[in-house]
Amino acid sequence: MRIIRYIIQKEFKQIFRDKGMLRLIFILPILQLLILSNAATFDVKNIKVAIVDNSHSMQSRALIEKFQMNSYFAETKLLNSSNEGIEYIKKGKTDAVIEIPQQFEKQLVNGNKTSIQVLINAIDGATAGVQNVYIAQIVKQFNLNITLENKNLSSQQNLSRIEMIPSFWYNKTLNYKTFMVQGILVLLVTMLTLFLSSMNIVREKELGTLEQINVTPIKKHQFIIGKLFPFWVLGLVILTIGLLIAKLVFNVPMLGNIFLVYLFTSIYLLLILGIGLFISNHTETQQQAMFIAWFFMVIFILMSGLFTPIESMPKWAQNITLLNPIRYFVEFIRMVLLKGAGLQEVLLNLSVITVFAITINGLAVWSYKKTN
Amino acid sequence: MKRFRGFVKKEFFHIFRDKRSLFILFGMPIAQILLFGFAITNEINNVEVAILDYAKDSESEKIIQKLKASEYFNIETEITNEKAIASEFKKGKIKAVLLFEKDFSKKLHTENKATIQVITDATEPNIANTIANYTQSILLNYQNQNSSAKNIGINIQTRMLYNPELKSVFNFVPGVMTVILMLVSAMMTSISITREKELGTMEVLLVSPLKPFQVIVGKVFPYVFLSIINAIVIVSMGYFIFGMPINGSLFLLAFESILFIVTALSLGIFISTISKTQQTAMMISLMGLMLPVIILSGFIFPIASMPLPMQVMSNIIPAKWFIIIVKSIMLKGVGLQYIAKETLILVLMTVVYIGLSIKNYKTRLE
Asked: Quick one: which of A37, A254, A116, A43 has its CA closest to B295?
């Protein structure tokens, strides 16, 4: 025990001695949490639309006004031809082009159908889909007004309708920050501890100091525990700072038990440090360690369900996410903080993480012995 | 020149001797693009939804059939009272409950108005919002089919340009390509130069007759080569496996990719001039670049929807400009005149990084 304490002391000293590194360890995650939480939103806003009005009539102007008044649309430019519109899309100056035909007003007044043409830049399919819905909604609203004005029609119209009342639980205003802040915090804590731990032991190998330690009476498990403990503490410190930021800056609700969050994180960090140790064991240079850590991190992040829904992935990919630690943490922290879930509801996540942590650390210690 | 060639050869040799790194460098982009190309999508479908039907009459039955038939929803969970909603949400499996009021059909026919409540677990706002929208449009369709009224007004003819099927892979291939090229290039150079510093071999190199400039170029050159191969692999996979079109000039695409690789590499060199150890270099290039590149580049989140300060900040992310360039060439098929601004910005960034590196480098050598 005394030996472990000495190693821990030494490791902490090393971390605190390198002021530049220390600054990075704290500043990078905090800054990113503050900045990136604002940027991660799937809302589709500020749509730029160009309108080609061939009708130049009261009705067409009324329709254009509808777009100008709508808060989703940032810009409504009037163009002369749809060719010009396509040119605008090519240059990225507009998202959609709407062309109103010459006969627009005439046909509407006569109670006929008329049609407008909508061109949407669909490279980002999801965004294009939403833009399409917004445009359609405005036109539908416009149609309804016409129908109501056209009184003799409305008397015959079957007015029975089904009303949909949406209610958004746990996040009434559909605020993305509420949803993203803890998720990004989870990513930052994971990245920090994984990168630092995976490079740490391999560093001793690369510099040749590991050989020296191996000839001292220090036992391997003492060495490993001593090496990894500071990062475990560091992870918890960053988590604490992040939770404070979430509460004070972003006003994220924290309904559940905060001790549960710490319990989970403590075990989760053991798992991440175990992965780091495992990577360290199987690499010879810091560069290699970093590549492997990076590879898994990108996969962990993109397949965590934080940015894109897991349900929409094909079955085999969903099965891969079952091995992704970040997935369990993201699920867990949302359930506890936003929905107030208790131990019983998150027991599955907790036990999976625990089993993973035991397995990977077992493997790491076992392979550590073999390589030396 | 001969000396320089020898040095470059040595650097190549270094990299190719390290089989593990080589495997990682080539294998990982392939694995990642396969995984993400097939798995990652912004689309929302198969959402698990429960129905709480207090009416159990003909209209509610018919609407439920409609909902079940839609690919958007999976309806499996049985739920019979409102108290169960919260506990189901906490379990996390279902994302919404559609609640039919009592006497749904009767109200619809006698009072001309009946309500369906859509209760969503809005911890994931995107999914919640989409469920509400999907339900609304399914209901509208249902009513339109049953309504006898004459359909008047404006009809919309929509054309989705460049990606009529709204495939999200067209968005993700350029994104993954950018993330990989950016991080591999910046990371590799930043760490490989600091590595020499940390191990003390940089000093040795600098007293050699090679000029510092040649040392740097010699160290970076193999990575330019590797990144180009990676770019070729990614573009071919996008084309052959995911059916990404290459509507524009392949030559232009190659030129822009090399430009971007050089931008990322010069960023890597800059990082290496400000860090003493590999760990610092790694912290800056990995920890500092990974999330900003993923979140602020427009790869996943639309930049236009971000708050203005974030939109401004996204301009300093080289990846943002390259994603625009790749999409423009591959999908829109436009020529250089349409992406001149983006190209110029990348050139400018490269010049700035190299300038800063030279400045830093000189002060370090004194």
From this structure: A37
Contacts of A320 in chain B (CB under 8 A): 35, 39
User: Minimal Cα distance from B133: which residue of A?
Assistant: A133
DSSP letters spanning B259-272:
HHHHHHHHHHHHHH
- Tens digits of residue pLDDT in A275-315: 999 999 888 888 888 888 988 998 999 899 888 888 888 88
B126 interfacial to chain A (CB closer than 8 Å):
yes
Phi first, then psi: what are they for B294, rounded to 5°?
Answer: -70, -40
Query: What φ, ψ does residue A116 adopt, rounded to 5°?
Result: -110, 155
Interchain CB contacts (distance < 8 Å): A and B? 366
Cα torsion for A244, A248, A249, A254, to the nearest 10°?
70
The whole-number average pLDDT for the span B116-130 is 85
For the stretch B257-309, pLDDT in tens is 999 999 999 999 999 988 888 888 988 988 889 899 989 998 888 888 888 99
Nearest to A288 among B21, B35, B294 (CB): B21
The residue among A215, A356, A167, A332 whose CA lies nearest residue A275 is A356
Residue type, A214: N
* 3-state class (DSSP) for residue B74: strand
Give the pair of three-digit tokens for residue B325. Answer: 């360039």
- Residue B75 contacts A where some CB pair is shorter than 8 Å: no
Q: Which residues contact B339 (CB under 8 A, 6 or more apart)?
A: B256, B324, B325, B328, B329
**Within the 90-109 window of chain B, which residues sit less than 8 Å (CB to CB) from chain A?**
90-92, 108-109
CB contact under 8 A, B309 and A172: no
> Does the beta carbon of A367 lie under 8 angstroms from any beta carbon of chain B?
no
Q: Are A267 and A328 in contact, with CB atoms under 8 Å apart?
A: no
**Which burial class, exposed, middle or buried, applies to A193 when counting CB atoms under 10 A from its CB (0-12, 13-18, 19+)?**
buried
Element (H, E) at A369: helix A343-371
Which residue reads 């397995």 in tokens?
A359
E strand or H helix that includes residue A196: helix A176-207
Segment B186-237, tens digit of pLDDT: 888 888 888 888 877 777 777 777 777 788 888 888 888 888 998 999 999 9
Nearest-CA neighbor of A295 among A316, A275, A315, A269? A275
Q: Chain B 251-270, CB below 8 Å of chain A: which residues?
A: none
Contact criterion met (CB < 8 Å) for A121 and B139: no
Between the CA of residue B292 and those of A15, A32, A82, B133, B296, what are the distances in Å? 25, 8, 37, 30, 5
- As a dihedral over the C-alpha atoms of residue A281, residue A285, residue A291, residue A296, rounded to 10 degrees, the angle is 10
Distance of alpha carbon A84 from the chain centroid: 37
CA distance B347 to chain A (A): 19
Q: What's the pTM value of the predicted model, to 2 decimals? A: 0.86
3-state class of B52 per DSSP?
strand
Q: How far is CA B74 from the centre of its chain?
A: 27
- What are the beta bridge partners of residue B49? B96
In what side-by-side order are the strands of the sheet with B73-74? A161-169, B113-121, B96-100, B47-53, B73-74
